[in-house]
Amino acid sequence: MNVNFFFEVLIGGLLSGVMYALVAIGFVLIYKASGVFNFAQGAMVFFAALTCVGMVDKFGLSVWLAIPITIVVMIVLGLAIERVVLRPLVNQPEITLFMATIGLAFFIEGLAQLIWGSQVHKLELPIEDVPLQFLLDKFNIIVSQFDVAAAGICALLVTALALLFARTKVGRALRAVADDHQAALAVGIPLQRIWAVLWSVAGMVALVAGLLWGARNGVQFALTFVALKALPVLILGGFTSMPGAIVGGLIIGASEKLAEVYIGPMVGGGIEGWFPYVLALAFLLVRPEGLFGEKIIRRI
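RE: above sequence
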C-alpha cells in the first residue's frame, strides 16, 4: 500500500469531515434548544448560498459585499421563523415542531428558487482549488488548498460558537433552556429570545456551509442533500454535543473517503453515498446516544 497516497486520502477525508461537522452544528444548535431535529437546515444552507450568489450574478455585487448582506438576510429569516412558526408552538409536542420544520424546509426551498431561479450557479471564492505546494514538495501528498482553507474557516467558526455558548450569558441561558423549557421560563429566561438568537446563528452557519459547499459543487438544489450527511455525524457524535459534531464529522469524512478508495472497487463503486449511513447504523446499535450524548435513564 502506498503510504503517501493513504495519507492523501485520509487528510482529504478529514478536511471534508470538518465541513460536515459545520453542517451538523447547525442541527445541534436547534436540537439543544428545542429537542427537535431541524429538517429545514439543509434548505437554509441552499437558501443562503443561492441568495449570496444570486446577488452576485443578478446585481453585479462583489462576493465581499454580498456575504454581509446575506448574513443580514439569514438573521431576518431566523427571526421570522421564530416569530411566525415557532413561537405559536411553544410547549407543543416535539413531533409537532418536527413536522413544522418539514413544512418550513419545502417553503424555504420554494422561496429561494422563486426569487433567484432554479438553475445551477457557479460560485467563485477568492481561494484557489490547487494543490498545497508545501505538502506536494515535502511529502508528495496532494491536498487541495481550498479544502485546507475551508477547514480552517470552519474550525474558526466552531471555536467562536463554542466560546459564545460556554462563556456568555446566552450560553448559560441556552443550557438552561435545553435542560427544561418550563424551568427556564419559571426563572425568567426568555425562551422566544433564545430561540431567535439560535435560529439566527443557525442561519449564519448555514451561509458559511452553503458558500463552501457551493464553491466546491456549484450552488444548486443538491445542496439540500449535503445537509443529510449531517445525520450520521449526529448519530456518532450525539445530537446535543458540539464537540461530538466535530468528532463525528471527522470520523464520517475520513471513513467515507477511505471506503470509497479501498472498498469501493471491490463492491462496484458508489459506496461513498451509503457507507456513512451503514457506519452510523452499526454505531447506533452499540451506543444509541452517541459518543458525547447523555444516557437517558427512564424510571418506571
